[in-house]
Design goal:
Helix 3 packs parallel to helix 4, helix 6 runs antiparallel to helix 7 and helix 7 packs antiparallel against helix 8. Helix 1 links the parallel strand 1 and strand 2. A five-stranded parallel β-sheet has the order 2-1-3-4-5, with helices on both faces. The two termini are 43 Å apart. It is built from ten helices and twelve strands. It has two domains: 128 residues, Response regulator (Rossmann fold, 3-Layer(aba) Sandwich); 191 residues, Heat Shock Protein 90.
Length: 338
């Protein structure tokens, strides 16, 4: 069954042919008529995506085959049908080779045959446009995969810069741990610092991690800050178990947590409060009270831009950052379990 949304352009210098064609097909299609090739070109300028174009061959000034040759580059996806009323083999061959016609119809016109040809032409047009769309989407997916791979490599290089010679680092931490036998708090700090760096090194080969792993990591990170700020930190993590297998980009929570301590003054008398939960849109929310530092340089926003770019590579969902009167709220989309 033909779709009424399809446009058809019919070019013919005989007015009664145009009127007869429109009378027969106007209920099934949107019909555009032109009395000359020049008029047909004007219509195509205003309707650049007309899928089906019919043209009579013998017309004054410009033949149908010449008309089709002219539009073959500007309208490559349109299906072209030539109508010829005389035995001109050369003109038909030209139309096929140069104008890239789909079919030619001999006069007198059999409109039942024309109806079948148009329906077949529409099927081919739909397949052609679907193929073009799929090819375009495939190229986008390939581009995103390449960008994601580059992002991973970039992340790995950044990690390497931060963790040059991990063997030396962990040996140094072990030595430091042994040198402070009488300070339990310092030993605990060194132990947790070692755990944090071990997680960073072990997860650097993947762009994503389970929420459970990131929560375990951020707990160690927060414990470090709690020791550093001497009880100047209050955390409340409330995550339903059903979300623990969901994924997020690696170090997402660390980026957000680092920004909290970078921009806010923290002390025992003025503790920072941090709440972690999943909202009704399946976004992971990290909400913190605001105690802005004095004389703080303007933020570069690199951390947030990094998160936005990483999400842009894989999903239409975007991280959201906003302020209220009392809190700064960072929300990042949870991704389905892998």
């Amino acid at each position: 069954m033909a779709e009424s949304t399809f446009d058809i352009l019919y070019v013919d210098d005989e007015k009664h042919n145009l009127e007869g064609f429109k009378a027969l097909f106007r209920r099934d299609y949107s019909i555009q008529l032109a009395l000359s090739a020049e008029a047909g070109l004007d219509i195509l300028k205003n309707h650049p995506k007309i899928p089906i174009i019919l043209s009579d061959q013998r017309m004054p000034h410009k033949t149908g085959s010449v008309f089709f040759e002219e539009i073959s580059k500007s309208h490559p996806n349109s299906i072209r049908i030539l109508i010829t009323g005389y035995a001109d083999l050369n003109a038909t061959i030209d139309a096929i080779n140069k104008g890239k016609i789909f079919h030619y119809i001999s006069k007198p016109i059999n409109y039942l045959e024309v109806k079948g040809i148009i329906e077949k032409a529409i099927e081919i047009y739909q397949l052609r446009t679907t193929n073009i769309r799929l090819n375009f989407e495939n190229k986008l997916l390939q581009l995103k995969a390449e960008q994601e791979e580059k992002e991973l490599i970039k992340s790995q290089l950044q990690n390497l810069r931060s963790h040059i010679n991990p063997h030396f680092l962990f040996n140094s931490l072990n030595i430091l741990y042994a040198l402070i036998p009488d300070n339990d708090q310092a030993r605990e700090y060194v132990k947790k610092l070692s755990n944090v760096y071990r997680y960073i090194l072990q997860s650097s080969d993947s762009a994503f991690c389970k929420l459970q792993d990131e929560l375990d990591f951020i707990k160690e990170y927060m414990d470090l800050q709690r020791i550093r700020f001497i009880d100047g930190l209050e955390t409340n993590v409330n995550i339903d178990n059903k979300y623990l297998e969901y994924t997020i980009p690696n170090y997402s929570m660390q980026i957000i947590a680092e920004n909290i301590f970078k921009h806010n003054a923290v002390s025992k008398d003025f503790p920072i409060r941090i709440f972690v939960y999943v909202d009704d849109k399946d976004y992971l929310v990290i909400k913190n009270s605001m105690q802005p530092k004095k004389n703080l340089f303007e933020s570069s926003g690199i951390g947030q831009m990094n998160l936005l770019e990483r999400y842009n590579l894989i999903t239409d969902l975007k991280p959201v950052f906003k302020k209220t009167k009392e809190y700064y709220i960072s929300s990042i989309p949870l991704l389905p379990p892998k």
